[in-house]
Amino acid sequence: MKCLLIASESAEVLFYWTDPEFELNIQEQYGASQEEGEKPPAFEDSINTLFAPIIISCSTMVDRLGDSYTSFSTENNHTYVLHQFEECLYIAVNGDQEEGEEDLKRKIYVMKKMIEVQFGMVTLSSTLIRKELRPQDTEQRTNLWKYLQSLLETYSRLREQDQSFLVEAVERLIHPTLCEQCIEFLERRLVQQINSSVERAGEEVLHAFILVHTKLLAFYSSRNASTLTSSDLLALIVMVQNMYPSNIDLEDTAPEDVENTSAPDIFYTPEPSPTNRDSGTDRDSVNSGRHEESRHEESSHVGSGTPVFQFLDPDIQMAEDSLRTLEAPPPDPSNPSRVFLEVTLKEGCYPMMPHSMYCLPLWPGITLVLLTKIPNSNLAMSVYVFLEAFAKLEKRLSEGLEGSAARSQTSIQDLRNKLDKFIRALGTSDIQTSQLQSVWTEFKSRAFTRGGPGFSRDLVPWCRTMKSQLCGVYRQCFITENTVGGGSPQRLSPSLQDRALTMVQEKLMDWKDFLLVKSKRNITMVSYLEEFPGLIHFIYVDRTAGQMIAPSLNITDRATSELGKGPLAHFIKGKVWDLVNTSRIYLQKGYSTVTLRDGDYFFCYFLWFENETGYKLEVKDLPILPNDSAPIGMLAWDYYRKLLRYYSKSHQGEVVKCYELLTVHLGVIPTEYILQHCSQLARKLWEPSRIPLL
């Protein structure tokens, strides 16, 4: 019983996703009231009818009270979490107690992140993003919603199955020699050959990396490329997994059988994502670093499957809202996806800059990803600079700081000159700028004309209109030409992509079976048991690099993990997932150390800071986050980057790094030995974590 909805303030549905149980419940609820023989209401209409009172209530509270509720529970134990982003209201619902408020909040923020990666700065204009999320063309809207639904399902599957998405950090394959060889190959042969080719159509490869399922084998960035943030990299991995989902049955097949399954149709027309999800949580008392204790009830998670699609008779006319009856077209590897990622240069940080992403499947489970800079990307930087300038001006004027705005004549005059030049440059292209020119002319007459109102509150609506017009120009340049299921008309030639694919395949041909097995058994607990008796599991995270190391936790009906097979293995996995959730609760309250004894097990969580040489820095109180803050993590909102900035203020001129360690021990081990183990384990893992991504 799960649902996620995006709606406008006028209760118009901009996007929805439901699991089969929620969909069936809606159909039974609204279909039962129909007269015999009468056609049941369209599903989208039913969704709208169900949520309209909540949406209207939220809008009314904001208008009259300036505030709104963020969550509530109903008598039938349904939990609703709501969050307003500009004029778009996100509502996440759970009716089977499998997800708590924090889980629903995280799902909302992840959905927002994926939409930002898809649409870039268009999301900064409420009017434009409403049009993008709900196209007038029925087929286009069907394909878009289907794609966004599958992204959400893919993320949910990864978070329930993959430790890297549980802690939101990238997991690397631990094989230093092969990693180094692949990085060198990407740098000296692949990227260099592509960037020197005349077939690249003006594009330039900035980043190239190889994924084995969700694990990173090698990553290379060109010298003039910005660092790819962990948040963006995790989002891209979700997109790759959505295009070419990991097949659990294939993963558990013996290596000698993998060769027989590597037919092209496996990865050009991937099977749907796995539908069985299992995860569990059990909670007991928590002893924090500040000696606080809490009791939690036990609970278990049984995930839901993906929606069931029905195939209709071709003679039946499909209704406009029958979105689930259409399958999205299979991905074409030669068509790049337009993605919008953060870029950091000497001039500053520029979010949501356009890139082209090429996902080239080497073999099932192994993918080469290329991120390229497109020829007109500098235009996006200019748009962002202007948007930021008008946003700051709007804020000052809204707060009644007209004098401050007027005194900053130098920056305002500079903005005027640059924007005039920008609009003139656009006039020589195919971009429609008449509306932008008209609004800008009116803005100048009001702000700079001697008889005009000058810099006053009257300019606030014009600042907003200017931002909307700039987003419209951005949309014309980077969104309109790039539709879901299609690619940008300007791209690397198919022959150049084929050569790149062949080069990497030849490099990894002798390694592919090993890599597929290695991805399931990256590191094992066996190598740690002699040195750390009683240690069951651990997760070590380098939050500065956004990378993690953990023994494999692969539990399927066909494979036996180091934890065994059956209820015990699932129980331990559920405990690990629960420990991560519990640690986040206390981290939000400002605790950097949590210890928890639960029956036969003892759990520990530590967060600490070091300098570049590995010297542990003194403990400092962490900021306490409000209850309505964004969920702690790196995918939807990079909490750790903000935490590093906060801590670095007291260590000026020193490189500060942040680490986390989570451990699970047998409860019979004395506490003093457990704490000693944690300290020794952190030192032991310090060196492997320094393998660079380059």
UniProtKB/TrEMBL annotation:
Positions of the FUZ/MON1/HPS1 second Longin domain: 204-382
GO cellular component: BLOC-3 complex
InterPro entries for the chain: FUZ/MON1/HPS1_longin_1, FUZ/MON1/HPS1_longin_2, FUZ/MON1/HPS1_longin_3, HPS1
Region Disordered, residue ranges: 256-306
GO BP field: melanosome assembly; vesicle-mediated transport
Comp. bias intervals (Basic and acidic residues): 279-300
Residues in FUZ/MON1/HPS1 third Longin domain copies: 534-687
Top-level division of the source organism's lineage: Eukaryota
Ranges where the FUZ/MON1/HPS1 first Longin domain occurs: 2-158
One MF annotation (Gene Ontology) recorded for this entry: guanyl-nucleotide exchange factor activity
The protein, known as: Hermansky-Pudlak syndrome 1 protein isoform X1
Species in which this protein is naturally found: Salvelinus namaycush (Lake trout)
Gene: hps1
